[in-house]
Amino acid sequence: MQISQLDGKRVALWGWGREGRAAFAVLRARLPSLPLTLFCPAAEAEAARAETAGALTVLGEPDAAALGSFDVVIKSPGISPYQPMALAAAAQGTVFIGGTALWFAEHAGADGVVHDTVCVTGTKGKSTTTALLAHLLRAAGKRTGLAGNIGLPLLEVLDAQPAPEYWAVELSSYQTGEVARSGARPQVAVVLNLFPEHLDWHGSEQQYVADKLLLVTAANPKIAVLNAADPHLRNLALPHSDVVWFNQPQGWHMRGETVFRGEQAVFDTRDTPLPGRHNRGNLCAVLAALEALGLDAVALVPAVQQFCPLPNRLQQIGRAAGLLYVNDSISTTPHASLAALDCFAGQRIALLVGGHDRGLDWSDFIAHMAQDEPPLEIVTMGSNGPRIHAMLAPLAAAGRFGLHAAQDLPEAMALARSALGEQGGVVLLSPGAPSFGAYRDYVARGRHFAELAGFDPDSISAISGLGIA
Fold first, then answer.
1. Could you give the CA distance from residue 117 to residue 270 in angstroms, rounded to a whole number?
2. How is 23-81 classified by DSSP, letter by letter?
3. 130-143 as b/e, with b when 16 or more CB fall inside 10 Å?
């Protein structure tokens, strides 16, 4: 659905975060006379009224009848369309879309393809992968837009001039279906991996996987770049797309720490700034995507050395009193915490885990703590901290690691410091859970971690390369 098609319809916005503000600004610029209504929590309503100077009607949280009174509801990504009131309104004919769908509809060519656009999704590593893709495109001398879930809503750069030659777009599982609903086809879509996540939004692991895969199963990209090592991906049939595989011997893959293209050894990743082996492995996805765009990936790969790692993702923010502080606040699944531990294997680690409880299964994490080399100390915290603590307690009693319970992040930091003692080590914040309740988002949690560690939170928060350059 293009923005012009909203003219004459009853349109509401749902949510007044950055995405909601971006949608309002675009609609006011394109359709200044279109009446608009905003549904949002009471905490956001006062700010919305002040910021829009009466240019829209601000209401509270909606019910099914309120949503059903509109033809189109433009919702923020974090609002689930599976909640009963949204499903009831949709059954009455209300169309729910997001800013991602509007952006893709506006950028589609006459053939329906959003040319020179690469979409990246996956449970783990998608932000770093998207940023690395943009970095290498710019190294090739291409003006490139880096936007999407990574921290810049697409609608904020809808009318960017001069337009970039390429777009690198990160998509969350909340947004992949939006591309399909837009009716547009990305030129290239990359899917890195799939692990259970966001089950409270999607309702089940099966629905999460199905929604995540909509980027390739329903949006029908011209070229799909897929991870051959992922069981959810390797058996996919995509009759409307050309499929390029990475992590298989015939394509881009890693052997040890070296990136290969088929039998050609191309790049030693050991001294790169990419944090974690999983991110170095995702370099193979980036190189496959560059080739899918028709570029010389082999010639571009040395520019990886100039890549600036992203904040809140295995970010080594500094050392103090013999301790290295690592901010992996974006870790919201147990699998992400395991990947973080792997990056610091062999070191004295105090791992901080726990946060908002959305019902994820921690049994695989517990199994790894029983079988693999565990951290020296584990500190649990947050609403799911007691559940994780109870699962770990038998292993701690058997001497596998020290185990501590904290109410919040400040207490967890104090316990970690004390447990590591004068011998030093790594204080690793990799919670494996969202920040909801205690913090606005993972960025706020990471900033607080930096502040508690004695570092300037402003100096560790900016995402290098965001926007168009």
1. 30
2. HHHHHHHH-TT--EEEE--HHHHHHHHHHHTTSSEEE-S--HHHHHT-SEEEE-TTS-T
3. bbbbbbbbbbbeee
One domain, residues 282 and 344 = no
284 secondary structure, DSSP code = H
Intra-chain end-to-end CA distance of the chain, in Å: 28
Q: In CATH, what number is assigned to the domain containing residue 410?
A: 3.90.190.20
Q: Are residues 68 and 157 in the same domain?
A: no
pLDDT tens digits for range 70-84:
999 999 999 999 999
CB neighbour list of residue 156: distance below 8 Å, 6 or more residues apart = 18, 22, 25, 147
Name the band, by pLDDT with cuts 50, 70 and 90, for residue 132: very high
The residues with which 152 forms a beta bridge, in sequence order, are 148
Lay out the sheet containing 315-320: strands in order across: 315-320, 323-327, 425-429, 349-353, 377-380, 402-405
Give the chain's domain count.
3
Does the residue 465 lie in any domain? no
In this structure, the answer to whether residues 87 and 116 fall within a common structural domain is: no
Neighbours of 319 (CB within 10 A): 12
| Rounded-to-integer distance, Cα 137 and Cα 166, Å | 8
CA distance 418 to 403: 12
Q: Which of 25, 153, 163 is nearest to 99 (CA)?
A: 153
- Mind listing the pLDDT tens digit for each residue in 8-46? 999 999 999 999 999 999 999 999 999 999 999 998 999
**Residue 196 confidence (pLDDT):** 65
Query: What distance in Å separates the CA atoms of residue 392 and residue 12, rounded to the nearest whole number?
Result: 47
- Domain final residue, candidates 260, 275, 309: 309
- Angle formed by the axes of helices 409-420 and 442-453, nearest 10°: 40
Boundaries of domain holding 40: 3-97
Q: Are residues 266 and 171 in the same domain?
A: yes
CB neighbourhood size of 260 (10 A) = 17
Q: Are 82 and 173 in contact (CB under 8 A)?
A: no
Give pLDDT tens digits for 140-182.
Answer: 999 999 999 999 999 999 999 999 999 999 999 999 999 999 9
Which of 97, 129, 156 is the last residue in one of the domains? 97
For the whole model, what pTM was predicted? 0.90
* Region 331-348 average pLDDT: 93
| Contacting residues for 101 by C-beta, under 8 A, at least 6 apart | 1, 178, 179, 181, 182
Amino acid at 322: G
